[in-house]
Design brief:
three-stranded antiparallel sheet; Rossmann fold; about 25% strand; alpha/beta; five-stranded parallel sheet
């Protein structure tokens, strides 16, 4: 598999955020997006996720399911966790697994364990801390596997132990041939990852 972009451009509010952007990420590899606030890191992730139309250029995913779009083969974690307070942790994961066509019975226990949420399985989401909600949002990626993970500041609200869990989960995804594109101001601990810096001129 390979995710690639050719001469991508993004325009927001009549302003060119970036243009002429190209990259290529193979199966088992990660691309880390860096750069100052407003340089387009989140916008690029949203373009890949199909949530924002590109002003120019093309995105291509080779080797995936030809019957599915790029967006349908990607998980996106944005700044909001998008969780329903009344649902329990386990119900949330079962819902997403079923909605996305995964085997909930097989995948949800692994997702709970991987992100340290098993003791909280029957707790309503509304009672979770910010860090626990972030871990639950990330656990959806395990409950319903997809080859491409798009992570926007995934370590926000996570403590050191949870960041370690996230690192292990990301490494396992890459070891299985998955692809990660992550935007961050911090080191995600992805050894060998490519780095793409956006807005370099603005930061100079």
């Amino acid at each position: 598999m390979r995710l690639s972009a050719s001469n991508l451009a993004c325009v927001r509010g009549g302003r060119i955020v970036f243009e002429g952007l190209s990259f290529s990420v193979a199966a088992g590899a990660a691309l880390v997006l860096t750069g100052p606030n407003g340089s387009g890191k989140s916008s690029l992730l949203r373009q890949i996720a199909g949530l924002l139309e590109s002003a120019d250029g093309a995105l291509l995913f080779e080797g995936g399911d030809p019957e599915l779009t790029l967006a349908e083969q990607a998980h996106y974690l944005g700044h909001l966790d998008a969780l329903k307070p009344a649902m329990t942790v386990a119900e949330t994961l079962r819902f997403w697994a079923a909605w996305l066509g995964a085997d909930a019975a097989a995948k949800v226990p692994d997702a709970l364990e991987s992100m340290g949420l098993a003791p909280l399985a029957d707790l309503p989401v509304g009672y979770l801390s910010a860090g626990q909600k972030r871990r639950l949002a990330l656990a959806r990626f395990i409950a319903a596997p997809r080859p491409i993970w798009l992570l926007d500041e995934p370590t926000v609200a996570l403590d050191a132990a949870s960041i370690g869990r996230l690192g292990a989960v990301m490494q396992a995804h890459l070891a299985g041939g998955g692809i990660i594109v992550g935007a961050t101001h911090l080191d995600l601990g992805l050894a060998g990852a490519q780095t793409l810096r956006l807005g370099a001129e603005a930061a100079a």
